[in-house]
């Protein structure tokens, strides 16, 4: 009986540790399995992806920035010699001054496409695509990082070309409407960056991406009024030119420099094209987002 009384009076192990549990600091509550740890925009991840893409093409900037600038400048020299002799003028300015904005825009668009069409395609071919897909980045953030880097390269190329043309005798790059230069420059670069992103998902080898460059991007760029005004074309080819979105990019960009273009010679005439270019970017962006979100040809 005494033993039972002592056992009843003695505290159990659970009773003994209760004060310790009550005095212990509260443990961190982790979210449920599958719940995201990062809410909102992953700024650090997005910035890291952007820096990675920019550093990638800057490591070979001689090839990715300065070489396209030299190539574009050669276009100006060749066409100026072939078509700009005897003081020939287009839209009231010397031919070289007329062609300069179109060449700047063409260089920007082509290099934006080249940059964004390389990232995912290289990852698929080298088996490193997991390094892009595994980080905690949403589909929109992945798109934003790749497109922003491509636009950055486009702006750098455009700046290099403009600097070279500024030093070229007989060429004026004075800006008449800054808003048109900024808007059409960014929209054109973004459109080609989105097209490059879709191409990099679709392509299975570098030949596929090169085919899009050679048979889609280059012809649309060269046949968009870069070196001529479409008023000199037949009505049929004028209609074809007006159905080319690159025509509005280059003509709107030229309007920003010269104050005149095939679209019109006033802000009111060009605003419609500016809105159309923005809507086109929105549509292509939504298509690209849907493809990235479903992992089309990336996760299979």
UniProtKB/TrEMBL annotation:
Keywords annotated in UniProt: Cell membrane, Membrane, Transmembrane, Transmembrane helix, Transport
Membrane topology note: Multi-pass membrane protein
Biased composition (Low complexity): 1-10
Native source organism of the sequence: Croceibacterium xixiisoli
Family from the record: Belongs to the ABC-2 integral membrane protein family.
GO molecular function terms listed in the Swiss-Prot or TrEMBL record: ABC-type transporter activity
GO CC annotations on file: ATP-binding cassette (ABC) transporter complex
Renumbered residue ranges of the record's region Disordered: 1-20
Protein name per Swiss-Prot or TrEMBL: Transport permease protein
Subcellular location: Cell inner membrane; Membrane
Keyword Glycoprotein: no
Residue ranges of every copy of the ABC transmembrane type-2 domain listed in the record: 59-292
Main location: membrane
Residues passing through the membrane, by range: 65-83, 95-121, 142-168, 180-202, 209-230, 269-292
Cited InterPro entries: ABC-2_transport_permease (IPR052522), ABC2_TM (IPR013525), ABC2_TM_bact-type (IPR047817), ABC_2_transport (IPR000412)
Pfam families in alphabetical order: ABC2_membrane
């Amino acid at each position: 009986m005494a033993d039972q009384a002592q056992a009843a009076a003695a505290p159990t192990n659970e009773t003994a540790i209760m004060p310790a549990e009550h005095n212990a600091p509260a443990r961190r509550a982790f979210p449920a399995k599958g719940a995201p740890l990062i809410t909102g925009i992953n700024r650090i991840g997005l910035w890291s992806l952007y820096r990675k893409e920019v550093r990638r093409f800057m490591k070979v900037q001689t090839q990715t920035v300065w070489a396209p600038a030299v190539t574009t400048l050669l276009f100006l020299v060749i066409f100026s010699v072939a078509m700009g002799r005897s003081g020939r003028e287009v839209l009231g300015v010397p031919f070289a001054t007329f062609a300069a904005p179109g060449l700047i825009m063409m260089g920007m668009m082509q290099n934006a496409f080249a940059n964004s069409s390389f990232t995912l395609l290289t990852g698929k071919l080298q088996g490193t695509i997991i390094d892009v897909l595994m980080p905690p980045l949403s589909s929109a953030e992945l798109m934003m990082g790749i497109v922003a880097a491509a636009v950055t390269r486009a702006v750098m190329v455009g700046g290099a070309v403009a600097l070279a043309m500024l030093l070229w005798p007989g060429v004026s790059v004075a800006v008449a409407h800054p808003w048109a230069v900024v808007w059409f420059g960014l929209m054109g670069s973004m459109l080609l960056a989105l097209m490059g992103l879709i191409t990099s998902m679709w392509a299975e080898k570098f030949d596929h991406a090169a085919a899009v460059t050679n048979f889609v991007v280059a012809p649309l760029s060269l046949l968009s009024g870069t070196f001529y005004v479409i008023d000199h074309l037949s009505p049929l080819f004028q209609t074809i030119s007006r159905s080319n979105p690159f025509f509005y990019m280059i003509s709107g960009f030229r309007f920003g420099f010269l104050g005149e273009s095939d679209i019109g010679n006033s802000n009111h005439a060009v605003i419609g094209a500016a809105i159309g270019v923005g809507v086109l970017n929105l549509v292509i962006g939504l298509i690209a987002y849907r493809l990235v979100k479903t992992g089309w040809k990336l996760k299979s």
